[in-house]
User: Which sequence fits this backbone?
């Protein structure tokens, strides 16, 4: 194995140090980035105070959501390995013709390391049940 001269050794050490620092900095940036971050937009819930756009960050809980801790705990309860808690109602579902009101919600972001882009409404019994499962992530509604 060849020996490094003083200058070559110093250059090799500097290069190694730069690579090591870059890796640590990148790892630290990834570690600081919230993996569970959602943006929720709610409209026509029947409660003007509940309508609007909110940020929800979990682990630790925070953001502009009215109840971040309770919302994060509910999302943790809904999350099961191998399933998507934000999945829409399957198209072949048998749903009651129950109208739950005009409320709508759109949720985007990242949950459990996966992208989220989900829409919610209360157009039939299945959609009402899906919405209600997400309370307090989504607000309770005053119905039709």
Assistant:
């Amino acid at each position: 194995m060849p020996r490094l001269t003083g200058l070559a050794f110093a250059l090799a050490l500097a290069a190694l140090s730069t690579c090591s620092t870059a890796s640590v900095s990148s790892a630290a940036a990834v570690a600081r980035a919230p993996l569970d971050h959602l943006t929720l937009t709610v409209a026509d819930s029947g409660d003007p105070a509940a309508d609007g756009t909110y940020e929800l960050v979990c682990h630790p809980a925070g953001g502009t959501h009215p109840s971040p801790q309770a919302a994060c705990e509910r999302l943790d309860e809904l999350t099961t390995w191998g399933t998507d808690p934000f999945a829409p109602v399957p198209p072949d579902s048998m749903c009651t013709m129950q109208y739950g009101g005009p409320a709508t919600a759109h949720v985007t972001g990242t949950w459990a390391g996966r992208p989220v882009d989900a829409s919610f409404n209360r157009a039939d019994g299945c959609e009402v049940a899906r919405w209600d499962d997400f309370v307090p992530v989504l607000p309770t509604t005053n119905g039709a």
User: Anything to note?
Assistant: The radius of gyration is 23 Å. The longest strand covers residues 36-43.
